[in-house]
Design a protein that fits this description.
327 residues; alpha/beta; Peroxisomal Thiolase, Chain A, domain 1; 5-stranded mixed sheet; 4-stranded mixed sheet; globular; binds oxa(dethia)-CoA
Length: 327
């Protein structure tokens, strides 16, 4: 069996920044409420770029960081809650944009755990030798599916994309990936696509293709599954939290991370946070965080890190990684 390592990362967010103050001019909220309840100070919001545009920029940057050509990629997995279209897959649009002519490209839908699911799927192809180099992308333009009249949700989300290049070989980097779903809780976080409206049915007048969420249920689920995922991946691989340099949780709410830190009696400095700048970018958040850590030289070869996702589905999962990129 092959080993798999991360050889490059990239990320991109629209230039346009929306502050909490700007949001307070749209819905009844305040900078103080948003910061104290979530930790979010601002988010990047598209002025027309779609998910594939953001994903393309992140992908090109990841290829550059990995020092490989698009032709060297033979698998592209794009995770998104906000794809460009039903058909084609956003991954195929990105494939065309970057010229990855030798790749199989497809999308996956696992909401905020999308990047972890993408890693898990890619590992199956790379470990068996079926593919050699994979590009995993998490990309979102959530602003197009946010209900801008709902203060419970519109303050949370932002647009952005992150990507990582994985390579099979003899160097161990991705030590383990584990992911799971709890479909019986799927109604807690939803975003419909189009209504069933045809010759036989007139559809639902109240139909809205926007995100709705039971925030309190997701909060509880998040804290419980992050703790469970971290403990499981540590136990499965005979590590303790002391062996881990950084934990990178899906960036949804600072209070979720704070609860996890307390539950695990962990050092809060181990938990990387950048949600203050991006808000919740769903499938993109872990990949954006990883790229920021890579580009700011926070990581050195040999560091062990844990990535943890949770979100719509409901889905969750974690990955234990040994850092191998030598800057
Ligand atoms: O990627 C996964 C996606 N989802 C998540 O991660 C969400 C997880 N959940 C959360 O992050 C939190 O539940 C929220 C940030 C969504 C909400 O925080 P909360 O502490 O659970 O607030 P709440 O829903 O209990 O609301 C408290 C109060 C309510 O007023 P009353 O009923 O106490 O008078 C809300 O109406 O705050 C009110 N409220 C707001 N006030 C100002 C709700 N949203 C806002 C707002 N600005 N934006």
């Amino acid at each position: 069996m092959n080993e798999v390592q991360i050889i490059g990362t990239g990320s991109y967010a629209p230039l346009n920044i929306m502050t909490n103050k700007q949001l307070s001019e749209i819905v009844e909220t305040s900078d103080e409420w948003i910061i104290s309840r979530t930790g979010i100070k601002q988010r990047h919001i598209s002025q027309g770029e779609n998910t594939s545009d953001l994903a393309t920029e992140a992908a090109l940057e990841a290829l550059k960081d990995a020092n490989i050509k698009a032709e060297d990629i033979d698998l592209i997995i794009l995770a998104s809650t906000s794809p460009d279209q039903f058909v084609p897959a956003t991954a195929c649009i990105v494939q065309g944009n970057i010229g990855a002519v030798n790749a199989m490209a497809f999308d996956i839908s696992a909401a905020c755990t999308g990047f972890i699911f993408g890693l898990n799927i890619a590992m199956q192809f790379l470990k068996t030798g079926n593919r050699k180099r994979a590009l995993i992308i998490g990309a979102e333009v959530l602003s197009k599916i946010v209900d801008w009249t709902d203060r419970n949700t519109c303050i949370l989300f932002g647009d952005g994309a992150g990507a990582a290049v994985l390579e099979a070989g003899s160097t161990r980097g991705v030590i383990s990936v584990d992911s799971a779903s709890e479909g019986q809780k799927s109604h807690f976080l939803t975003c419909p696509t189009v209504d069933v409206k045809n010759t036989f049915t007139s559809g639902n007048e109240d139909f809205k293709a926007t995100i709705s969420m039971d925030g309190k249920e997701i909060f509880k689920f998040a804290v419980n599954t992050i703790v469970k995922s971290i403990n499981k991946i540590l136990t499965d691989n005979n590590y303790t939290l002391e062996d881990i340099k950084y934990v990178v949780c899906h960036q949804a709410n600072f209070r979720i991370i704070d609860f996890v830190v307390k539950r695990l009696k962990a050092d809060k400095n181990k938990f990387f946070v950048n949600l203050d700048k991006y808000g919740n970018t769903s499938a993109a958040s872990i990949a954006i965080a990883l790229d920021e850590m890579n580009k700011t030289n926070l990581l050195t070869v040999g560091d062990k890190i844990i990535l943890v996702g949770f979100g719509g589905g409901l889905t969750y999962g974690a990955s234990l990684i040994e850092w191998t990129i030598n800057k």
